[in-house]
Amino acid sequence: MPEAPELDAAAAFLRERGTGRAVTGVEVGDINVLKTPTPVADLVGRRLEQVRRRGKFLQLDFEGLWLVVHLARAGWLSWAEPAPAKPVRMGRGPVSLRVRLEPDAALVLTEAGTRKSAAAYLTPDPDGLPQVAGLGPEAGELDRDRLAAVLAGTTSRVKTVLTDQGVLAGMGNGWSDEVLHRARLSPFATANRLAPEAVTALHQAIAATYAAAAEAMDGVAPDKLKATKKSLYRVHARTGLPCPVCGTDIAEVAFAEKSLQYCPTCQTGGRRLNDRRMDRLLK
After folding, report:
1. Which one of 26, 49, 204, 223 has the largest count of C-beta atoms within 10 Å of its C-beta?
2. Order of strands, sheet of 95-101, starting from the edge strand that comes earlier in the sequence
């Protein structure tokens, strides 16, 4: 699932390429992607004025009518210039939504697989959407004391805190693995039991991880961001490969349809984590 660093990079790219361009057409490939009753045709003729991110949502302002997009687990954005000549066919192929912009460009939302969960909303009030209004503060914007207060208020695992969008917004499974590895913390550590120095390490790890991602993703086209993201991973999705810090094989805990990765030496004192303790983790 796209997370804050790559969505910030996508927003910056779209601001640079798309600001000031008017919508010339909107094509829907999956009717289920549309979550609000406002007709997509209402976008036509409106110019893109700003692009921003809130949590894992991209918010695009077309002269007061906002297109808010959540890419879910398998969705992604691409920028096409020139735009494809062939129109999108409903129910055929991976394209869920294509927004054509003058003179000959398109913003394309695709979603892989058969389980479609991506969402697009049209609204005059992007922060008023219940899905957005319920988000916690941005994980990458908290100072150390505010992060400490968040952690002190919950008995959840630290992995859960980092990925619960109602507590901290923007971070998901991938970057939370990276942050915890950089901070040398177990994903199973109880949030309100973290020592002050561990809280400091976590805060510094969030800042350093986001900064490194921002630098690597600067100017990268949206459809290339997934590959860039994967190239930055040191533990996530690297089960069985050596930890770049200590050389220990990266371990995994599987739960539901997801998994987390960690280094037993760097993060858990050599102990391997038990899958059965994951029942309270990410939804």
Report:
1. 26
2. 23-28, 95-101, 105-111, 75-80
Do 173 and 4 meet the contact criterion of CB atoms below 8 Å apart? no
Question: Would you call 237 helix, strand, or coil by DSSP?
Answer: coil
How far is residue 187's CA from residue 185's CA, in Å, rounded to a whole number?
Answer: 6
pLDDT of residue 277: 43
- How far are the Cα atoms of 10, 84, 147, 163 from residue 55, in angstroms, in the given order? 13, 30, 16, 11
First to last CA, the chain: 13
Q: Please, what is the angle between helix 196-217 and helix 4-18, to 10°?
A: 30
Residue 275 has pLDDT above 70, yes or no: no
Rounded to the nearest angstrom, the gap between the alpha carbon of residue 29 and the centroid of all alpha carbons in its chain is 23
Portions of the chain given CATH number 3.20.190.10:
4-133
CATH code 1.10.8.50 region(s) in the chain? 139-278
pLDDT more than 90, % of the chain: 90
Q: Indicate the average pLDDT of the chain.
A: 95
Q: With pLDDT > 70 as the criterion, what percentage of the chain qualifies?
A: 97
> In this predicted model, what pLDDT tens digit does every residue of 205-223 receive, in sequence order?
999 999 999 999 999 999 9
Query: Which is it for strands 48-54 and 95-101: parallel, antiparallel or unpaired?
Result: unpaired
DSSP state of 191: G
Domain 4-133, CATH: 3.20.190.10
Lowest model confidence (mean pLDDT) among 127-141, 193-207, 228-242, 245-259: 245-259
The answer to whether the CB of 184 falls within 8 A of the CB of 266 is yes
Q: Which residues pair with 111 in a beta bridge?
A: 75
Is CATH 3.30.1780.10 the right assignment for the domain spanning 139-278?
A: no
